[in-house]
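In this section we walk through a basic example: taking a raw amino acid sequence and producing a predicted 3D structure, encoded as discrete structure tokens. The instruction is simple. Fold the sequence below.
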Amino acid sequence: MDLDDNISEFLQKIRRRNIAVVYTFQNEDAPGFEHYDYWTFGVVGDWVRAVEQLGCVPYVLDVRTFGHKALSNSLPPIDFIVNLNAGNLSLSTLGVVPSLAGFLNIPCLPNAVLATVAGESKGLSNKVAEAHGLNVPAPLSDSDPNGISKPDNLGSSRGVVRGKACGVTDGVYQTFVPGVDFTVPLLYNPRRGFLDALPGIAYIPDNGDVNWFLGDEEKRRHKGYRKVAARIDADVYRAFRGLAERFQIKTLCRIDTRLRCDSIDQCHRLLAAPISMEHLYFIEINAMPTICEGMNFCNALEGMAPSDPMAAVLEDISGRIPGLLKTTFVLYCSMRAYMR
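The resulting token sequence is shown next.
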């Protein structure tokens, strides 16, 4: 059976299946459910449209309603759960939706509870990455003013500052690596049967300063940088795929790194060839990255070359679904990881 036939068979198999899309209601007042950020309709809407593009039926509900129905056995038959509860101040509540999905024995996308929570913990993920052989910035003493502070439980660069952050006890304080931020998405390839690396995305600062990093304000404003797609070499791919497997990730993730260089000119020279491990320093593994048109995961799909292993899969399903969203493709690949 060729890939085209396989896609047709799968789309027919999942037709009219129910997929729960669980989002965070911003006015939720549960005392342990504080958030520093929410995914709004730009993200939620893309996932709902993705479910519909695959011919499935979206069942959209907030976390509390989902929890109530899950524990009272009042959910309709659900085949997959899309977890859009992100931005939690507590790692415990970050795991609520995938934990309940496990309780119900329903696949949770993008990932199950272990990967979702462990990946968000900077301290834990750094230790796992170091044990796996990746370069990790060295820890610094609090008295050294030249490092970078990263809170343990916050994403989207929230709370990341140069120097030791005052009053922050949970997190990492590490050597600052000059260079540029470089993120590599991994996505399950249904043709090959395992996670594939998409092109990495480098964030090149407008000011040309290798001491710049992608901070909270820059992420929110989407200003101060431009994105450049680049490849990683085979050794980096094997290391990143192995790290994802250590976190029991089978669908997708994003590995954030620092590409070490002394100047932007050197950075461009490095980006012109497949990037080797000696130039990369681990920041975090994100098992719940933002998937939305125009964001870096989708940018990576747009940056693929025709020879990239995932390009043929994207081309074939694009021919089956007119106006295919990149989010739809991510959902398709993630579901295929569970339905082989």
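Looking at the output, two observations stand out. The mean pLDDT is 90. Residues 3-119 form a domain with the Rossmann fold fold (CATH 3.40.50). In the next section we compare this with other chains.
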